[in-house]
Design a protein that fits this description.
Order of helices and strands: HHHHHHHHHHEEHHH
Radius of gyration: 25 Å
């Protein structure tokens, strides 16, 4: 079965939380982010890594500038906005890719912590939750892949069929104006380069969501364990206390997991927060005022969706994580502790105090990552549209 990991595996199979990242890390290997540790194939792989970064991370954003410097007069307003919205996003993508790649070791170490958390998941219902979150993580990756590939493919086809390259990246070697063959060659080269950039951008956008889903799953499992504390009459007080200590250790490992992924997420989401309003504004202006064909409008609409997917799902998950922390505190308070000994109660009080501090992710050390922050930065798109309408910029572009 193709993409069999998008469905929960039967409980007869042994699944781990890290398996929710399988498609993610396979794609990282394909794009050149996971070199072999030794052997001659390592050097061949590093050559592939250099090429993907050279063309998709470095040349692509510079190619847009080269195109503006040499061919700006040949752009129609719609073509220029189509190119500009992707150009801005390409620079942001290069920054996100650099942050993710340089701090990839943190994400790998976080998987080791997930393995330690999984060791405690021996009950049937806990294993079911792991199997479910593994399928969700891989399903989310497949959905993102489809959306991102649809954007690249639709832009490529709609532009070529309209008689122009999709993004008009600077190409000093082949003049696409000469004949149709050159047009297809240039367009296909652009599509290959852009596909690499889209894949890298997808990796930078999807890992926070998958890691957040895995985090929420272990918070939920911990909440269930806490709610069952001191409910087994066959256990002694020392055993009850030991069970409480294990829950505290689990929570500590969850906090360590968050500390590992927090610097990576901070950089990538902050970069996207800086760009989302402007990119959305330019794209919507292009759709409302300059789209000259239905295929072009569809491609721009898909680009809007991909832009929204870069921040909104993770921001929503951050809100849910805060709610999960609150539910964890409620579970501690409502657990069976009233007739426990003083040692148990004092330890439980310490645990409650730590849990009441919610798990929060901060973008660039400035903005809390949440739905309210995301909506605030996205509102800039409407400011861009308003300025354009009030100053009649669209009509002036059309007239010129």
């Amino acid at each position: 079965m193709l993409f069999k990991l998008i469905k929960p595996a039967p409980l007869t199979e042994q699944m781990r939380s890290r398996d929710g990242c399988i498609y993610l890390y396979r794609t990282m290997t394909f794009i050149g982010w996971q070199p072999p540790k030794a052997g001659p194939q390592r050097y061949l792989y590093l050559f592939w890594t250099v090429n993907t970064f050279l063309w998709s991370t470095i040349y692509l954003p510079l190619g847009f500038l080269g195109s503006y410097m040499t061919m700006i007069k040949l752009f129609t307003p719609g073509q220029f906005l189509t190119s500009l919205q992707v150009c801005i996003n390409a620079y942001g993508s290069s920054v996100k890719v650099a942050v993710t790649y340089t701090k990839l070791s943190r994400l790998i170490k976080a998987k080791d912590l997930l393995d330690k958390l999984d060791l405690r998941c021996t009950k049937l219902e806990e294993r079911e939750k792991i199997h479910l979150v593994v399928s969700r993580g891989n399903l989310v990756f497949v959905i993102y892949t489809i959306v991102y590939c649809v954007y690249a493919g639709s832009t490529y086809l709609s532009s070529v069929l309209s008689g122009r390259p999709p993004w008009q990246i600077y190409n000093p070697l082949i003049d696409w104006h000469k004949n149709t063959l050159n047009l297809w060659i240039v367009s296909t080269l652009e599509y290959v380069i852009m596909s690499g950039a889209v894949l890298q951008d997808q990796l930078s956008d999807i890992y926070p969501i998958i890691y957040a889903l895995l985090l929420r799953n272990h918070l939920d499992i911990l909440r269930e364990r806490i709610s069952k504390l001191r409910t087994d009459d066959t256990m002694t007080e020392d055993e009850h206390y030991e069970a409480l200590i294990k829950c505290i250790i689990d929570h500590k490992m969850i906090l360590d997991y968050c500390a590992l992924i927090r610097p990576v997420i901070s950089g990538t989401i902050f970069t996207q927060f800086l760009l989302i309003g402007l990119v959305l504004g330019l794209t919507l202006i292009n759709v409302f005022f300059f789209s000259d064909s239905i295929p072009t409008a569809i491609a721009s609409f898909v680009f809007v969706i991909t832009t929204l997917l870069q921040t909104f799902p993770f921001c929503y998950l951050c809100n849910l994580i805060i709610d999960d922390c609150e539910a964890l505190a409620h579970a501690i308070f409502q657990s069976n502790w009233i007739d426990a000994g003083s040692r148990y109660q004092s330890t439980l009080l310490y645990f409650l105090h730590n849990v009441q501090q919610p798990i929060v992710f901060i973008a660039g050390g400035i903005l809390p990552i949440s739905m309210s922050s995301n909506i605030s930065v996205a509102k800039f798109a409407f400011s861009v549209i308003t300025i354009t309408k009030q100053m009649n910029i669209a009509d002036k572009f059309k007239t010129e």
